[in-house]
Structures are given as structure tokens and as C-alpha cells.
Amino acid sequence: MNTLIAKLRETAERDNATDLRAAFAADPERFSKFSVSFEDLLMDFSKTAINDEILDLLVKLADEAGVAEKRAAMFAGEKINITEDRAVLHTALRNRANTPVMVDGADVMPDVNEVLAAMGDFAEGIRTGAIRGATGKPFTDVVNIGIGGSDLGPAMTTLALAPFHDGPRLHYVSNVDGAHIADTLKGLDPATTLIIVASKTFTTIETMTNAQTARKFIASALGEEAVAHHFCAVSTALDKVADFGIDQSRVFGFWDWVGGRYSIWSAIGLPLMIAIGEKNFGKFLDGAYAIDNHFREAPVRENLPFLLGLVGFYQRVILDYPSRAVIPYDQRMSRFAAYLQQLDMESNGKSVTIESEAVTTPTGPIVWGEPGTNGQHAFFQLLHQGTNIIPIEFMIAANGFESDLRHQHQLLMANCLAQSEALMKGRSLDEAKAQLLDKGMDAGKAEKIAPHRVFSGNRPSITFVYDLLTPYALGRLIALYEHRVFVEGVLFGINSFDQWGVELGKELATGLLPVVSGKESAEGHDSSTKGLVAALLEAAK
Ligand SMILES: O=P(O)(O)OC[C@H]1O[C@H](O)[C@H](O)[C@@H](O)[C@@H]1O
């Protein structure tokens, strides 16, 4: 085993380093030591079981793993996604300085700029009504059809940036379940509806199937010729888009060096741009670019994504916590955890190292979450008193957009801070007993009830604070998480940029389609699959 990892484990146990209350009691400077800021974004990780010695060891481990060199290789366009022989350059999409970024000897920036400008023209045309539907009416509704990276980014950000949404209404269809598209199209007027078909590969069965359903919705109401006016596409597979019958002038390309889960900055962001406008989309890119520079330049101990990665690695590998929860105290961020699930779990849910060996440490944690305060009334019981320790990442803006509802924002802030404080401090048996006795309970009953009211405390969390959730601030937050996933991936020793784990199910689904359609027998499948097929076919009779 890596000696630094062994040393980290030893240190964690020896110092009882997980005792957060003791750490706060011993050091009044703990907050200032273990919190960092970039612009108005503050990351407080003082409520995690980190100390100077552990941080030093983690920094050494990052040195040994070559995080800095690999970071440079990523930004420089080296083909660090070795299993697909691809560069990893989502950072080029928000390279606002426009410095050359070379892949295979060619600068990618002219292509990046060209697509961004074309998206801007198209988005503004839709927003102003200069581009209209087949019957001459302006578009009131836009339906984005895509799944995974071609859905989660634009869907999450459109919701998060609702206060900036002044374009047509946006709808997102992803699931192959016909219910999703049926419910979405119900109530929409084909004459004023624009369909965006978004797929990096343009082969994804869900998206292709929903696109055909949407095509019928347009063509049956307005005629085949209307399809050209009501469809556009976003893809890296321009030949396949042409086969679908979408006009070249309505196709916005991106490149194989943009991973699906990193593609919100590319033409996949078109629906967001239509919603909030070209200028605000530019600010969203600016925010990510600011974090890119910070990640590249800031010393490790002041570097938010780097530190977030180190703490995440420590919690996953050294302390062996299997999951982490992301809890934004922001209703508009309600899809943020879903977005992070793809970003993090598809990137770091791996069991093989970059050298094709079995990993020797745990890799990516299970990521999940919901906005506060809602989560408090649902699953926080387990976070406070359950038998697993689940580190939490809280986020809270200092200001809401609803200035007339400031008192509600104050309640939101108070709740966010109360949760991290409660998780850290807990309540001892003596405190619980004393509280009950104070309330007048008799001693015998207090003895029995008090254990149920004990909180172990020492439960870790990180809190992010920022001024206001603007396009810039959101761009910054997403890029921060992208680079955190990168840092952890390097420390795990894996390739964070492929996703072979989604393939097997896809292959088997293709084989099972004729079986569940009753065209082929289930022979050759296991008895469970055969039994399930029989039950479904019987019930569908
Ligand atoms: O954009 P597409 O090619 O349609 O792919 C959509 C999604 O499907 C796949 O199964 C991958 O796991 C995702 O990384 C991807 O974002």
C-alpha cells in the first residue's frame, strides 16, 4: 500500500482526528485556518476532520500522484482520456482569453468561437422573434430532447437561473418512457414550438426515439416541410444529424474532446442560452473561466477545487465514508445533486487504474442530495442519528432574488448554519437528560428517553457561501466541482473521462427489445429474466 496512505490512516486513528468538537475547542483559529475564499465564494471546511498534519500528508500525496502535472496536461490538450484516446478540453470552451489550445497540432479556439457565435445568433433570433416557425409565428416554447450530459446540464442550469430567464419557456424531455414526452407536448402549440435534439453521438436510443415522436408532433400538425423550421440539433456527429433531416444551418457542433457530462459549456448549452440570452451565457462561461485560472494558479492551500478534492479523497479513502450529500439551501438548485451525480459518479465510479490494474483503494463515493430546508424534514434524521457518517456539502447565498421576502431568506440561512452546527456539536447523554429533567420529566423516565435524544456529533460538513446565484456564480460553482472530480480521480489513479460502465445495460436492452415485444423467445436468458418477461407479456395481454 502507498506509504502516505498508510501514514494518513495511522494519523487519523492515532490523533482521534475525527473529534471535531475537540478540534474547535483547542483552536480558536480553526475557521480561519481551514476556510478559503475565491472572490465572493467562501469554502469553509473547518467542520471536517482535517488538521495541519493531515493536510500536509494529503498535499504530499497529491504531489506524488502528479496532480499538478496532470492538471497541466489536461489544460494543454494532451490525450489524458487514454481508453478513448481523447483530449479532455471542456476548459477550452470557456477559455475567454482565447489563447491557442492545441489538439493534434491544430488550435481548437477558432472552431469554439465560431460555434459560440452561431449559437448566439440563433438564440437571439429565437428570443427576439426574428427566427419564426413555419406559420410565421414566433416561438413561445422550446423543447430540448436529450439525456445524461445532453439533458442534466441545461435542465439544471435553466432552473437555477430562473431569475435571468427572459426568453421563451424551456422544457426538457429525457426519459424513453413515453409519459415524459406526452406530458411535455400536451398543451404545447406545434406552430410556436422549437425542438432541439441534443446528443453527442446522435445514436442514443432514448433521444432518437423521442426525436421521432416530436417530429410526428410537428409534421402531423404543420406538414413535413415544417420540420426544417421547427427542429435544430446539437451534436458531434454531423453526418448522423444530416441523415435525420435537420438542415446544416440549424446544427451546432462540438467535439470528441468534450465529455457529455462536461458539455454544458458547449452547444449543449444552447437551450440555456435561449433562456437567459447570449450575454448572460457569456457570464456563465466567465465564471467557469475564473475558476479554471484559480485552479491552475493558486497555491494548493488557497486552491478551492484542489482542497475540495483533497478533503473528498480523505473522507472517501482514509475515513471510508461511502457517500456524500450535497445540500444547496436554494430551491432553484434542486437539480444540482442530480447533475453532480453524473459528473462525479460517471467520472470516478471505476475499479481499474489508469495502468489497467485493479484499484487498491475505494474510488468515487455515492453522491446524492436535495435542497434544504426540504431535506431536513425527510432524510436528515439519518444524517444526525443514523449509523453511517455521511459528509455533507452545504451551499447558501447571502442574498436571495426575492428582496421583499428577506425574512424567508434569513430563515433559510439560519437553517443551513444550524444544520452544520448541530451535526458537528451533537448532544451528549448528560445534556439530553438535563434537558428532560428541566422540562419536569421524572428521573426514571428521563433515563429511558434520553438515549433517543442523543446526537453523537462530530459529523463533518463543508459549507459554501456566495453573494447571489448569478450566471457567473453558477459557472464558478460547476467548474469548481468539475476540477474537484479531476483531483480525486488523479488521487484514485483512475481515468475519470470514460464511461464504459453504461455500455453493458445498453447492449442487453437491445437484445431484450424483441423479447419484450413478443417477437423472440426469452430462451437463453436466466430464469429471473425469463420469469419477468413472462409476467410483463401476460399482464399486457
Ligand atoms: O449525448 P449522447 O451521445 O446522447 O449521450 C447521452 C449520455 O448517454 C450515455 O449513456 C453516457 O453515459 C453519458 O455520458 C451521456 O451523456
UniProtKB/TrEMBL annotation:
It is an enzyme of class 5 (isomerase). Its EC number is 5.3.1.9. It catalyses: alpha-D-glucose 6-phosphate = beta-D-fructose 6-phosphate. GO terms for cellular component: cytosol. The keyword Oxidoreductase does not apply. One of its GO terms (biological process) is glycolytic process. Keywords: Cytoplasm, Gluconeogenesis, Glycolysis, Isomerase. GO terms for molecular function: carbohydrate derivative binding; glucose-6-phosphate isomerase activity; monosaccharide binding. Pathway: Carbohydrate biosynthesis; gluconeogenesis; Carbohydrate degradation; glycolysis; D-glyceraldehyde 3-phosphate and glycerone phosphate from D-glucose: step 2/4. InterPro entries: G6P_Isomerase, G6P_Isomerase_C, Phosphoglucose_isomerase_CS, SIS_dom_sf, SIS_PGI_1, SIS_PGI_2. The active site is at E346 (proton donor), H377, K506. SUPFAM superfamilies: SIS domain. It holds the Pfam family PGI. Catalyzes the reversible isomerization of glucose-6-phosphate to fructose-6-phosphate. HAMAP family: G6P_isomerase. Belongs to the GPI family. PANTHER family: GLUCOSE-6-PHOSPHATE ISOMERASE. This is Glucose-6-phosphate isomerase. The lineage of its organism: Bacteria, Pseudomonadati, Pseudomonadota, Alphaproteobacteria, Hyphomicrobiales.
